[in-house]
Specification:
By secondary structure, the protein is of the alpha+beta class. It has a domain of 132 residues. 34% of the residues lie in helices and 21% in strands. It contains six helices and nine strands; from the N terminus they run H-E-E-H-H-E-E-E-E-E-E-E-H-H-H. Strands 2-1-4-5-6-9-3 form a seven-stranded antiparallel sheet. A hairpin with a 2-residue loop joins strand 7 and strand 8. Helix 2 packs antiparallel against helix 4. The protein starts with a helix and ends in an 8-residue tail after the last helix. The relative contact order is 0.12.
């Protein structure tokens, strides 16, 4: 009788622990902040609920769109990037995820988000953050445009994604064709050289006349 009661007690404890372990996989809340100087017009945005993947709630959809679980532990998931993208990103926001850790406490995981980035939203999660008895793998993630739309629905400014940067190189002028600046530059004036040459010639002539006058004997003196 006592053995049966002990078995029932163990089964009851196991059943009670199953929902807690399952719920610990998803976030229980998220706070969106940032966006540049002054932050969000209405202040930080709080999202609460059941963040279990596949539950279909707003919190779960936000986590899945942002690639949270791909950056927590999973490796080689679609959307994961090997390095930071070089496209234009626009304003940066921070999502702080709250995970019940099963010990009665909560783990906070921070994720940076650029929802208006060219080519699709970009997120980044630092590695080594404590979560659910482990640490985050972290990294860069390229999300779909549904992340931008979800965050706008939650209160972010309604803006389109940035266009890809396209700055064409400046054309190099042909050596055979002078540029406009070169054509507009006047050639040096010739009159100073002509005037200088005339003055020099006049000075030489005057000097020769003076020498000839000195070398010519004057008239004889009479007594």
């Amino acid at each position: 009788m006592q053995r049966r009661a002990l078995t029932m007690l163990v089964l009851a404890l196991l059943l009670a622990a199953v929902p807690t372990a399952v719920q610990a996989k998803g976030a229980s809340a998220a706070t969106i902040s940032g966006g540049g100087p002054g932050g969000l017009p209405g202040g930080p945005i709080d999202v609460k609920g059941d963040g279990e993947p596949g539950s279909g709630t707003g919190l779960a959809n936000l986590a899945e769109a942002a690639g949270v679980f791909a950056l927590l532990w999973e490796d080689g998931q679609p959307g994961a990037l090997a390095s930071a993208p070089t496209t234009r990103r626009g304003p940066r926001y921070t999502i702080t995820w709250t995970f019940p850790n099963g010990d009665g406490g909560e783990d906070k995981v921070r994720q940076l988000v650029w929802p208006y980035a060219a080519g699709g939203p970009v997120t980044y999660m630092a590695s080594g953050q404590k979560v659910l008895g482990g640490t985050t793998r972290g990294g860069w993630y390229r999300a779909g445009d549904n992340l931008r739309q979800d965050m706008i629905a939650l209160g972010l400014p309604s803006r389109p994604a940035l266009a890809a940067s396209s700055t064409p190189a400046a054309p190099t002028p042909s050596p055979a064709t002078p540029t406009r600046a070169a054509r507009a530059t006047p050639s040096p004036a010739l009159w100073p050289w002509v005037a200088g040459g005339g003055l020099l010639l006049a000075a030489v002539v005057a000097w020769v006349l003076i020498l000839r006058r000195r070398s010519t004997p004057g008239p004889a003196h009479t007594h």
